[in-house]
Amino acid sequence: MALPINIKDLLDRKNIENSRIYFKAGWNPEPIIHTICAFANDMDNIGGGYIVIGVEEQNGMPVFPIKGLDHDSIDDINKDILQKCNLIEPRYLPIVSHETYDGKDILVLWVPGGNNRPYKCPTGIYKNAKADKAYYIRKASSTIKANASEEKQLFALSQNIPFDDRPNANASIKDIDPYLVASFLNTVGSSLILTPNYNVDEVIIQMGLVEGAPEMRRPRNVALMFFNNAPEKFFPYSQIEFVDKPTPTGEQMTETVFKGPLDKQIISALQFIRGYVIKERIKKLDDKAEALRFFNFPYAAIEEALVNAVYHKSYEIREPITVTLTPEGLEIKSFPGPERYITDQDLEDGHIIGQRYRNRRIGDYLRKLKLAEGRNTGIAKIINAMGNNGSPAPIFSSDSERCHFSVFLPVHEAFLPKTEKEIKGKRTQEEMKKAILSALAENGKMSISELATKLGYPMPPSSLRNAARILINEGRIENTEPSPRAPNQKLRIKV
């Protein structure tokens, strides 16, 4: 069977963490079966891993040029893999693919996280298969026996298959769009799409997108999230909502909603943000030939925060991801919040390191599409991007019940709206009155909020309201509505 990832990208470890790849120069059953067991247990919910047979390693890295396998041994190794995997309890079979690289034969074992974990296997393959069995897990780039505490965690995980990996009883295999599947495979360079006599159903099965008997296959949730054009039908509010809120009262607020497959949502939202939100300024320095360039928000920080929100959101909770733009900053909020072992102090320090992921398959696909990177790199990337732009530090927060997670990116100080104190110091009461009269003469009728915006205030200051009140008392301007508190109240020059 073919792999869902390009073999060159796999060997170059592109978008795949080192801990998810295991290289062996030849067929060595014992450590390989232990590692199959560890990847299948997938204790960190990161999507299992890959075992590459025929490639030597040094310090966890592949050695090039690769050694390869004797072509005549491939069939025997395949048979032995099947035999040895029968020793794993419960039974688990990886997906085995015969690949060629630089003219050399290799075998790649794709080992997704199993649905029947925890798995155990003999500590010694050639000993009595019914005795001395252990649970194996991955720690960094090593395969180790689980200790008593880790065994308890594995059994706890067995009761909780990640939501994105569960079959969806309300959907059928027909809900998977073959064109979206083909587009994904082409993007990641998979050889699945190049298989002779390409069969959509077979490819979907090989990708692990469905579960169940042939007569009633059900798509897994991740298949509907990436390969259905309207995932919100199955997961209400699985969308990104962008809100531009220029004033605290919500006047002139606009909203843009992004729906569709998760990767398409991310790409569309980021393209919109790049064009609508991001602004650049250039400052010439007297003592340097180069100009200083900075942005209201560094794009890299927004990109990382939004991708993380899509990755870590619970799709069982009917709440969208919201991106809210205000004059003071940009906030990205998702539901729920981080695990409770992450303290408020951790949030304040930006020290947010997850022990396991909520959506292992979503993360795997986002990495293959180069939309996400390795584990636990997002927060550091956001902090670094803000610092490199000369922006204030980002603020990570959650409520006491960990119902939501918020990333607030303060706007660069050069783009902050002028405060009332700064502007008020430049305008006396008479100057404020003249400014109001000039604005009304130019624009006709205007509300207090519209006047504030026109005069450069983020919200109406008391000095503006006082000056307007004096002008009304002087008979120079008037209200358009009889009641001072009318919702559509505006001011105009009195004729």
Topology diagram in text:
Blueprint: H1 7-11, E1 21-24, H2 29-41, E2 49-53, E3 57-58, E4 61-62, H3 74-85, E5 95-101, E6 104-111, E7 120-122, E8 133-139, E9 142-145, H4 148-158, H5 178-188, H6 200-206, E10 210-211, E11 218-219, H7 221-226, E12 240-244, E13 254-258, H8 262-276, E14 280-283, E15 292-295, H9 299-312, E16 321-326, E17 329-334, H10 344-349, H11 360-368, H12 378-388, E18 395-398, E19 405-410, H13 420-424, H14 429-443, H15 448-454, H16 462-473, E20 477-479, E21 491-493
Parallel strand pairs: 1-2, 12-16
Antiparallel strand pairs: 2-6, 3-4, 5-6, 7-8, 8-9, 10-11, 12-13, 14-15, 16-17, 17-19, 18-19, 20-21
Helix pairs in contact: 8-9, 9-12, 14-16
Walk me through this protein's architecture:
A six-stranded mixed β-sheet has the order 13-12-16-17-19-18. α8 packs antiparallel against α9 (about 300-310), α9 packs antiparallel against α12 (about 380-390) and α14 crosses α16. α2 (about 30-40) links the parallel β1 (about 20-25) and β2 (about 50-55). It has helices at about 5-10, 30-40, 75-85, 150-160, 180-190, 200-205, 220-225, 260-275, 300-310, 345-350, 360-370, 380-390, 420-425, 430-445, 450-455, 460-475; strands at about 20-25, 50-55, 55-60, 60, 95-100, 105-110, 120, 135-140, 140-145, 210, 220, 240-245, 255-260, 280-285, 290-295, 320-325, 330-335, 395-400, 405-410, 475-480, 490-495. The chain contains 16 helices and 21 strands. The protein has four domains: about 1-160, Methyltransferase, Cobalt-precorrin-4 Transmethylase, Domain 2 (2-Layer Sandwich), CATH 3.30.950; about 160-230, no CATH class; about 240-415, Heat Shock Protein 90 (2-Layer Sandwich); about 420-495, Winged helix-like DNA-binding domain superfamily/Winged helix DNA-binding domain (Arc Repressor Mutant, subunit A, Orthogonal Bundle), CATH 1.10.10.10. The chain is of the alpha+beta class and about 500 residues long. Helix content is about 30%, strand content about 20%. The chain starts with 6 loop residues before the first helix and ends with a strand.
